């Protein structure tokens, strides 16, 4: 499988470091970009994928004020990093505040990137959306599936 999938439960250490799943470290060895994500999560992209995503987003934002605001916040919050020898990424205070991260975290695979959530916030998000998922999603998913 070429993408990031699954759910993992690492703990944030006292220095703001989070160990990413070992199975993804090769794909992330060229560096990562951590930035603000949707629903107050954090997004972790392999550096080359972030470049692709940022270029597409930048083009889309030229004439749309909402898209411009999204791109501005995504870029302003971006932090380029290389995983340390133990596979950890450092989450700066601004990013930790955005995602309201406490010690217990959840990392979810989103195929082309990872998301980092505070464990309690992820549990609440999952509970709020699992019945719609079980019922078959939405009209937007019908176009995809």
From TrEMBL:
It comes from the Bacteria. One of its GO terms (biological process) is negative regulation of DNA-templated transcription initiation. Transmembrane segments: none annotated. GO terms for molecular function: DNA-binding transcription factor activity; transcription cis-regulatory region binding. Coiled coil: none annotated. Residues 7-49, 78-121 form the SpoVT-AbrB domain. InterPro entries: MraZ, MraZ_C, MraZ_dom, MraZ_N, MraZ_sf, SpoVT-AbrB_dom, SpoVT-AbrB_sf. Pfam families: MraZ. It is found in: Cytoplasm, Nucleoid. Its main location: cytoplasm. The keyword Lipid biosynthesis does not apply. Keywords: Cell cycle, Cell division, Cytoplasm, DNA-binding, Repeat, Transcription, Transcription regulation. PROSITE patterns: SPOVT_ABRB (PS51740). GO terms for cellular component: cytoplasm; nucleoid. Gene3D superfamilies: Transcriptional regulator MraZ domain. Forms oligomers. HAMAP family: MraZ. Belongs to the MraZ family. PANTHER family: TRANSCRIPTIONAL REGULATOR MRAZ (PTHR34701:SF1). This is Transcriptional regulator MraZ. It comes from Gordonia iterans. The gene is mraZ.
